[in-house]
Specification:
Number of strands: 5
CATH class: Alpha Beta
Strand content: 5-15%
CATH topology: Rossmann fold
Order of helices and strands: HHHEHEHHEHEHHEH
Number of domains: 1
Largest sheet: 5 strands, parallel
Helix content: 40-55%
Structural class: alpha/beta
Number of helices: 10
CATH architecture: 3-Layer(aba) Sandwich
CATH superfamily: P-loop containing nucleotide triphosphate hydrolases
């Protein structure tokens, strides 16, 4: 498991247990924990986490990835900018197919930070290639800081963005994450003493729908 976690390339050591669910109570905790079961991967479906910067999309996506590794799935985590940069840089070389295969092989590919910055030209073509070849065969989880209707502007290619969304949304779990930015919060609350708030400290989904 340690080897698989390292190979996944997570940016941070994030888990669902250390996510502050009380900070933004509008976040659908049950929906996220359902993704962490891996059912959507077993069914070759996709997932989209959409919301403004700072609400925890990267945290949650990496935490879900760790849960699936524990369950035996293979996971690869990359920022979407790094993926297209790798593919565009190496497209003229013989090893390009090997680079592309890296993103086609894992059971779950996590593409983080869509909308964080403008993507290079021809990004839409390569993203579409990845999504098309993974469609209904492997699962993809994407996070986006921008509304889905803005994707055409982000990739500079409206037809490709439309085709990407068509495949992703065909059989996908969409999680809208709204609320305040964690990065703008004040000093964190004092950690509870051992034995306090034991129920809330356990990373279990609530009985009711948030």
């Amino acid at each position: 498991m340690e080897r698989a976690t390292k190979a996944a390339g997570f940016r941070d050591q994030k888990t669902l247990e250390d996510f502050d669910w009380d900070f933004n109570r509008s976040i659908k905790k049950k929906q996220i924990f359902e993704l962490a079961t891996g059912r959507f991967v077993r069914e070759h479906r996709n997932a989209l986490l959409v919301g403004p910067p700072g609400v925890g999309k990267s945290h949650v996506s990496q935490a879900i990835g760790r849960c699936l590794i524990r369950a035996g799935w293979t996971v690869l985590y990359r920022s979407i900018f790094d993926v297209v940069r790798d593919l565009l840089h190496d497209e003229a070389y013989e090893g390009h197919d090997k680079i592309l295969a890296r993103y086609l092989k894992p059971d779950l590919l996590i593409l983080d930070d869509m909308g964080m910055k403008q993507l290079p030209k021809r990004s839409g073509e390569w993203l579409l290639e990845i999504i098309l070849r993974r469609h209904e065969v492997r699962s993809t989880l994407m996070t986006s800081n921008r509304p889905l209707e803005d994707w055409g502007k982000l990739v500079g290619d409206v037809p490709s963005a439309t085709a990407i969304l068509d495949r992703l949304l065909q059989n996908s779990e969409v999680v809208q994450m709204t609320g305040k930015s964690y990065r703008l919060r004040g000093p964190q609350r004092e950690e509870p003493q051992p034995g306090q708030n034991d129920k809330n400290s356990q990373a279990e989904p609530p009985d009711e729908t948030n």
